[in-house]
Structure formats: C-alpha cells, structure tokens
Write a structure and sequence with these properties.
Radius of gyration: 30 Å
Number of strands: 26
CATH architecture of the largest domain: Alpha-Beta Complex
Number of helices: 17
Helix content: 25-40%
Strand content: 15-25%
CATH superfamily of the largest domain: Spore Coat Polysaccharide Biosynthesis Protein SpsA, Chain A
CATH class of the largest domain: Alpha Beta
Structural class: alpha+beta
Largest sheet: 8 strands, antiparallel
C-alpha cells in the first residue's frame, strides 16, 4: 500500500508539472487567452517549480534540442527502480553540479599523505576545477578538419574502484564538455564495489550519467562487460576513471568505427603528471607493443614509417597493441568477438588478450592522432590484488598466451619462468571461441602485424637485453671496431638487443663481442662475427648471472664503462660483473 501511494503521488506530481510545462511553452496559449493570462505563463511556472532551479540554457551554443521528455531549462526527470520501489530523481546539467560538496568530504587532511589512497597527488587533483582548461595538443591539421555529421552516438563506460572523487568528476565532465551532446548517448559508471557507494551514486545526478554498482569486487574486465551489456548505444567507448578528454576527441574515433565496424580505435594518450597534474602532450610517433615478457610498452615508429607519414601526419596509425584503458569499438562487434575473458581478475593482461584477438580474428587496431585524451600515469597500483599483483598479472597473461600465442608462448615462459607455477584456470571456452571465429595463428600476427618484434633464432641460448641493474649493454651507436658500454635500459631493442648463440657468440646483428687482448683490463670491441674465432667465445656461469670469456676465463665487467668502454677482468662477486639476459631459452 505504501509503495502504491508513493507511485501515485509521483505520477500526480509529474502530471502537474507536465500541464505547467505545456502552458509555459505556449501550447496552452489558446486556453490562456480566454482568461486573459497569456503573458503570465513564465511566472506561473516559477511559482510551481518546487526547487527554484536557475535557468541553465546559457550554454556555449553547442547543445542540441532536448528530447521530448526533458522538462524546462535546467531540470529533467527520470524514473528509476530501486530497492524501495519507484521514485522520482531530478537531474542537473554538469555545469550546475556542486563540485565543492561532492569533493569536499573526501579531501586530504593536513598531515596526511596525499599519495596514500590513489598513488597520485590527491591534494593537487582536488584543487582543480572540474572543467579546467587544458592545452589543445592536436596537430594543426586536426584543428582544421571537418568530421562527418552522421556519426553514431556512443555509450561511454567508465569503471572505478575507490577513485579520487575529483579525478572521477573531471573525467565525466570532460566527456560531457568536450563532446557534441548528440554523440553522447549516456555515461555508464560502473562502481566496482568502492568503499563509499556515494562516490558514484552522487554523480548519478548529472544528466546522461547512469551508475551501476557491483555487490562485490569484480575487477576491470567483468565490470566493463557489465557496463557494455547495459549500454544502449551501438558504439562503446571505454575510458579509465582518471582521464581528461581534449577538444573534438570523440569525432575522429567514431568516424573510423562508422566506416568499418571491425576497427578498434584509441586516442593518442597524453600525460597528466601524477605529482602536479600538468597536462602534457604525448608524441604522435608511438605505437603500442610488448617484449617477450608480455609487458606493454610504447614503441617508436621506425624511420621508414615516420618518413611515409610526412605527407599525412594525422593519418591513423596501425598498432600491434593498445594500452587498453581508452578505446572505442562497435558494440555488436565487441559481443561477436567475445567481449573480455571473464576469467581474468582485477587488472592486467586484458589489453594483450583483446589486441591479439582483434588482429588474429579479422579486425584491426588503430591509434587516431586527431583524438587526444589525457591520462594520469601512476608508478604503483592504488588497489589490492587477491594473491598479489604479480600472481594476478601472471595468471591473466598466461590465459592470453595459452589461447592466442601457439608455440611462441614458450618465449614468454623463458622470459618469465616463474609464470609456469601460476595456475591459469580453464580456457576451453576461449579456445572454442578462437576456433569459432576462424582466427589466424600467432605466426601470422608476428609476420604481418608486429614484424618489429624480434623472434629468437633456433640457435639462440639467450636473447634480448643484457641487463645489469637498471642499465643494459649498449653498442652506443658504434659499429665494427667500436667499443661497447652501458646505458639505461629502454626496452626498445635496437642498440640493446643481443643474443648468446649455441656457438657461444654474443651477437648484435652481424657483430660480436670480441676480446682483443686476453689480459685483465682489456677493452671489448665489436667485430664481425667469425665462426671459429676463440676471441668471440663466451659462456654463462653462476646461474646465468655472469658472462665468462672462454679463452681467457675472464669475466665481462662494466667498472671501466665511464672511461670509454667495457673490459674483461678476473671473475669476482662484484656487481659490475652481474649480467642477465631478459630471455634465457635454456634454464
């Protein structure tokens, strides 16, 4: 009875408002004329407006006409079914959302660590306006470009767990502020069981924002799938919860998907500094990639690729992998392709899996230079992982490797031997999905999508970077008869890519490490590889932690690196003799 009374009261109230709006908008002018009251309709509306909301129709002119359900300027209503039954909920435009009230209760107090909760400087984040100005980092050609007028609308899915309210609010506001209103069908916030339900619930008062809350921690993948399943638009846009969209970020992405539904497209991801929240434009010469440890990294385009783009620097960039936090995809294609692997937990490896799946199953991945979105890059995860972050990442990564990488998965296990000990669960449904979609082998992916990734030769014992702490063995750009040195590891191959062969050569392309003089302190040089040259024979010793020259029994040493190169010295426990290949194929 109580619920029925509430429903009747709500509908009666809405009926009164509807009649008032009809009179206010001029639809009842004929009736009003008979009473001589046509001039007083606006005052009549204000008299019955119970919350005295101010007129919000002072926008910058980029807003389209409201739907027929929208009440007078500044106010809207929607019916929601909650645990208490039907209730009426007023919505406000983002410009009228009370940032101070929303953020104020969760601000960092004096003496507290501003990095403790979010692993970025929350004090600096909380100082910023929800609609702060950021620099337009697009290429000049993008700023002059015209986009199609018939683009499809999108549902923006943002998942979060204990996100700083100021960062989450800026993400939502930037989407609404920087997007043509008719292209945003809705913003779906999926609260992955945050400690405070109001982190998301209060944002549900903003127009176009819907909030879904998990009743337990589900992680990024399952939360995104829940948001995607609830989405009403034909195109999905996934964003992280600490982003800021730049000018006309959305149109270039939607245009590429509208032209080909099998494209999965990502913006250039600008950097929001985690310490001071300065917005910095990122290079447009980067693509997503990975090493055999299957950790995502940014690769610079090759010189040939950069030269080919000089005539059209804003052309889409084919990328072997996406970072995973920000991308746009046709909803039905997302479903056909198998959504996400729902057995992956929390975070990590999902970008690897979806990138392999898109490419191997007939789609493509692109970075769109005319689309820019800023992202707060952190050095640590702010949330907990059941079993530890390393175990969760290894489990997720193993699932991707076992399903999509065929025999090449062995290079991953060589790079990360400990991963073999992490159970990865049942993958039968994902293997069946691969078969159903008639997906290509991983060899095709390496040859056609990521030829830049060097595949170890069958003659290699060890491969990749030769690491010593944070430094790596580096050619320093030298060629034949040049010395070698150490340089900070950059994980980009190039001058830091080496192989130890079964013939005991340490090779960089067709050059080998050569001991010119077999006495302690002798410099190492790069010389052309010769099959039977004893000066070029090396072996790993002490658990693959050192490189010993076979002919002299001296060890590779970096103590003289600052003086012009590496040398061989009497083997010792010194840290300057500790070397480890990133990929050991014989454990």
């Amino acid at each position: 009875m109580r619920r029925r009374s509430r429903m009747l009261l709500c509908f009666a109230f809405l009926w009164v408002l509807g009649i008032a709006y009809y009179m206010y908008s001029g639809g009842g002018s004929a009736l009003a004329a008979g009473a001589g009251g046509g001039a007083g309709r606006k005052e009549d509306w204000n008299e019955i407006d119970p919350i005295k909301m101010k007129d919000l129709h002072h926008s910058n002119g980029d807003e389209k006409a409201q739907s027929v359900e929208t009440l007078p300027p500044g106010v809207s209503w929607e019916q929601q079914m909650g645990t208490e039954g039907l209730f009426c909920s007023w919505k406000v435009r983002w410009r009228d959302f009370n940032q101070e009230a929303y953020v104020g209760g969760t601000m960092v107090r004096s003496g507290q660590d501003p990095y403790a909760r979010n692993k970025f400087n929350q004090v600096e984040s909380d100082k910023l306006r929800m609609d702060r100005a950021i620099p337009d980092t697009r290429h000049d050609q993008c700023q002059r470009k015209q986009w199609r007028v018939d683009l499809p609308a999108t549902s923006v899915v943002i998942t979060f767990h204990n996100e700083a309210r100021s960062a989450l609010l800026r993400t939502v506001v930037s989407v609404l502020k920087k997007s043509p209103p008719h292209l945003i069908k809705e913003i779906i916030l999926v609260d992955d069981y945050s400690n405070d339900p109001e982190d998301g619930a209060l944002l549900g008062k903003i127009e176009k924002v819907r909030v879904l809350r998990n009743d337990r921690r589900e992680g990024l993948m399952r939360s995104r799938v829940r948001g995607a399943d609830a989405a009403q638009a034909k195109v999905l846009t996934f964003l992280d919860s600490h982003c800021e969209c730049n000018e006309h970020w959305l149109e270039p992405l939607l245009e590429r998907v509208a032209e080909d539904r099998t494209r999965v497209v990502s913006p250039i991801i600008d950097v929001i500094n985690m310490d001071n929240f300065q917005y910095v434009g990122a290079s447009a010469d980067l693509k997503g990639g990975f090493d055999w440890n299957l950790v995502f990294k940014w690769d610079y385009m090759t010189p040939e690729q950069r030269r080919s783009r000089q005539g059209n620097p804003v052309a889409p960039i084919k990328t072997p992998m996406i970072a995973g936090g920000l991308f746009v995809m046709d909803k039905f294609y997302f479903e056909e392709l198998g959504k996400y692997d729902m057995m992956m937990d929390v975070w990590g490896g999902e970008n690897l899996e979806i990138s392999f799946r898109v490419w191997q199953c007939g789609g493509s991945l692109e970075i769109i230079p005319c689309s820019r979105v800023g992202h707060v890059f952190r050095k640590q995860h702010p949330y907990t992982f059941p079993g530890g972050s390393g175990t969760v990442f290894a489990r997720n990564t193993r699932r991707a490797a076992e399903v999509w990488m065929d025999e090449y998965k062995n290079f991953y296990y060589a790079a990360v031997p400990s991963a073999r000990n992490v159970p990865y669960g049942n993958i039968q449904s994902r293997l069946e999905l691969r078969k159903k979609l008639s997906c290509k082998p991983f060899k095709w992916y390496l040859e056609n999508v990521y030829p830049e990734l060097r595949v170890p030769d069958h003659q290699d014992i060890a491969f990749g970077a030769l690491q010593q702490g944070t430094n790596c063995l580096d050619t320093l750009g030298h060629f034949a008869d040049g010395v070698v040195g150490v340089y900070e590891c950059h994980n980009a191959g190039g001058n830091q890519e080496w192989a130890l062969t079964k013939e005991k050569s340490v090779k960089h392309m067709d050059l080998c490490l050569t001991v010119v003089d077999r006495a302690p302190g002798s410099l190492i040089k790069l010389q052309g590889c010769r099959e039977n040259d004893s000066r070029q024979k090396w072996e790993q010793i002490e658990g693959n932690s050192k490189l010993r020259h076979v002919g002299s029994n001296l060890c590779l040493d970096s103590r003289t690196a600052k003086n012009g190169g590496l040398s061989v010295e009497v083997c010792s426990p010194a840290l300057s003799q500790q070397w480890k290949f990133s990929l050991n194929l014989q454990q």
